[in-house]
Amino acid sequence: MEQVKRVVFDEERCKGCELCTTVCPKNIVKMADRINSHGYHPAEVAAQEECISCGLCAMICPDVVIRVYRPE
Amino acid sequence: MGEKILMKGNEAIAEAAIKAGCRYFFGYPITPQNALPEYMSRRLPEVGGVFLQAESEVAASNMVYGAAGAGARVLTSSSSPGISLKMEGISYIAGAELPAVIVNMMRGGPGLGGIQPSQSDYFQATKGGGHGDYRLVVLAPSSVQEAVDLTMEAFEIADRYRNPVMIVGDGIIGQMMEPVEFKKEIDPADLPKKDWATDGAKGREKNVINSLFLDPRELEKHNLKLKAKYDKMKEKEVRYETYKMDDAELVIVAYGTTARIALSAIELAREKGIKVGLIRPISLFPFPEKIIAEAAGKVNSFLVVEMSAGQMVEDVRLAVNGKKEVYFYGRTGGMVPSPEEIVEEIVKIGGAIK
Amino acid sequence: MKLVAGYPDSLTEKPFHYCPGCTHGIIHRLVAEVIDELGIREETIGVAPVGCSVLAYEYFDVDMFEASHGRAPAVATGVKRVHPDKIVFTYQGDGDLASIGTAEIIHAANRGEKITTIFVNNAIYGMTGGQMAPTTLVGQKTTTSPFGRDTNTAGHPIKISEMLSVLDGSAYIARVSVHDPKHIRQAKKAIKKAFQVQIEGKGFALVEVLSACPTNWGMAPVEAVKWLADNMVPTYPLGEFKEVE
Ligand SMILES: Cc1ncc(C[n+]2csc(CCOP(=O)(O)OP(=O)(O)O)c2C)c(N)n1
Ligand code: SF4
Ligand code: SF4
Ligand code: SF4
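Predict the joint structure of the above. Result:
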């Protein structure tokens, strides 16, 4: 499957710590209203087109939830 | 090989370990076993091995844990207070099912005690010492040659069961010089590869050396697996020697140095017309309870002689199971019983049985 | 699209059991990324401590040991002496390394043991429920310093990196932090160096990583990393304390 999103969250691993939301230069990482099976609100990026693939959200995530891609 | 050389017990054990393919030694100085690490510090570099004087016995026993988990044959030695500190590592080694050999040249305790010969670590060696439901195979030589043979066997037993083996002696065994023969020599390169050991997960699943089981069901399963192993040892690894049991009316039960003294006492007693025999446990765990139970059907009474205030005597009583009287004679604190003292005890008991 | 931040090969798929926002997870990932980048996954043997990271042996996809409390450097010594050509690392908390295991770490460093130690300093005992550590800050409240750490009775925050850097056996000693991406990047660089020093056989290497324990500090994760930057960093200055050429 072709990768279209720049930021991908493995939602089930997310613990809702919010650290990723504090480092995004574009301020596009937000906490979702839904909860995952562990009862945490997962982080998400709705405005994928605004992402600059800087990787900072993945860098601070303690639970290796986030994969970041850059268009080639 | 083949020829006999005169060696001190401590050095002979060290050489026996090398001949058994052991190339790693971790220890911390303590009397009366210093000749063993000192010998290793000279000899191991010659055979491409590693001698390391650790910062403490705690560290030494955890280095043993690391080296054993990495797949090597490894030795450590100490004496009573040092063995107490090694108990942390020993419990982990047993828990993680690693093979290792530990030598305890026992000295008088408790506390700092003294440096003279003793057998007062019997409970510690055979009943645990460290925490948890585990057992060591405990072997007690009574001559330097036997110390050599048992040391070589200890490495085989350790590998066979993936379990630590302890050799217990005392300053007499350690410092006494006797002619010894090394019956074989193993090249560590010829030893079978341990597929559970950690040496880098190259082209295989990773290996983990661990004694943690957070789920009580898992831990119980692990403990039962260990127990099955100990039961198998009880079946297969019992070692003992008997002397003049055929016509014995009284039997002495003694191990190590004390058993040697008991032999002289037996001759003296027999000169007085008292028929005394000897059962000498060589493996303290597994304990030779069957032969003792059998003897209980034949002899009139037992005399347990130890250099302690009475430790092995409890196991003898369990084996005799109330069938006969079990007497005890012990010297402690580094005092060694003389054959004459033992005969005096025999005579006292002899009075009781006539 | 090209992957710029992914999941390291040297971590198993198992999700971490750490509390939300616990920076142990970041440090695990950095160590795994370094092992990947150096191509040493199949040569590496790790030693997990007793502490919150006791289960590290389940997370790193390399051969692992679980050591007794504080003794990881002794265990690593045993392994390294048997396999001098392999890469051996320990991962230890501050109770583990700076309290019960002080003797083992000092002597491993002093012997110049060719191992790499990742020392996670979170100024508290995490696993046992937030008791005072030797690294606890002056005045910091913990369950066993309920009125704040008093230097009169409980001494001072212990500075392990400074201590170890004066030993002739240590080859690389650095203190880093993981409270923001810039510092995380620096932390990774130091961890990489600490492994390279071992590969080059130079001697003992240790990276002290200032880490957050939101649960036992009683803070939300975002607040905890801020507290770390504002309070721990001034007490524990960051930098490379030793680098042998
Ligand atoms: C010999 C021993 N003493 C005490 C403990 C209990 N214990 C477990 S973890 C721990 C402290 C862990 O703190 P730290 O090393 O700072 O790691 P953290 O949990 O903060 O990551 C203690 C005291 C133990 N397991 N073994
Ligand atoms: S990669 Fe950078 S820009 Fe994109 S969501 Fe993450 S932090 Fe924001
Ligand atoms: S940092 Fe990771 S775990 Fe925390 S909210 Fe973001 S994605 Fe979830
Ligand atoms: S208690 Fe503290 S150190 Fe332990 S996992 Fe939770 S946040 Fe991390």
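Chain C has one domain: 24-243.
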